TrEMBL record:
Entry protein name: Helix-turn-helix transcriptional regulator
NCBIfam families, alphabetized: HTH_metalloreg (NF033788)
Coiled coil, from the record: none
GO MF term set: DNA-binding transcription factor activity
Organism classification: Bacteria, Pseudomonadati, Pseudomonadota, Alphaproteobacteria, Rhodobacterales
Family annotation (CDD domains): HTH_ARSR
SUPFAM superfamilies per UniProt: Winged helix' DNA-binding domain
Transmembrane segments: none
Residue ranges of domain HTH arsR-type in the record: 1-94
InterPro entries: ArsR-like_HTH, HTH_ArsR_DNA-bd_dom, WH-like_DNA-bd_sf, WH_DNA-bd_sf
Length: 115
């Protein structure tokens, strides 16, 4: 059983919602005001603020307030644990599939079905 990483759980929870992923995609193009992030969603501002809070809690975005305008920026290095976990999973499953392939090939040779 893989060890439980609460930070990784926060990241996957934050990434699980399509609205939050859309916000991250928008922020990949540069910082934006909260009102600009809310506009294309069709959601009310308090709802968007809750989505932003989840992203910020996971460390995926940082927000700052200048005067009356709150803006957000993506924190791309926060995705490093997700990349690491996915790379580990890919290596694990590639190894398992390679062993399965070796087993199937060995069975085929033993039964004379090696064509």
């Amino acid at each position: 059983m893989a060890k439980h990483d609460p930070d990784l759980s926060l990241l996957f929870h934050a990434l699980s919602d399509p609205t939050r992923r859309a916000i991250l995609t928008r922020l990949a193009g540069g910082p934006a005001a909260v009102t600009d992030l809310a506009a294309p969603t069709g959601l009310r501002l308090p709802t968007v603020m809750r989505h932003l809070a989840v992203l910020e809690e996971a460390g995926l975005i940082a927000s700052a307030k200048e005067g009356r305008v709150r803006s957000c920026a993506i924190v791309p290095e926060a995705l490093a644990p997700v990349h690491g976990w996915l790379d580990d999973q890919r290596a694990l499953w590639e190894g398992r599939l390679d062993r399965l392939d070796d087993y199937v090939m060995r069975l085929m040779k033993e039964t004379g079905h090696d064509d």
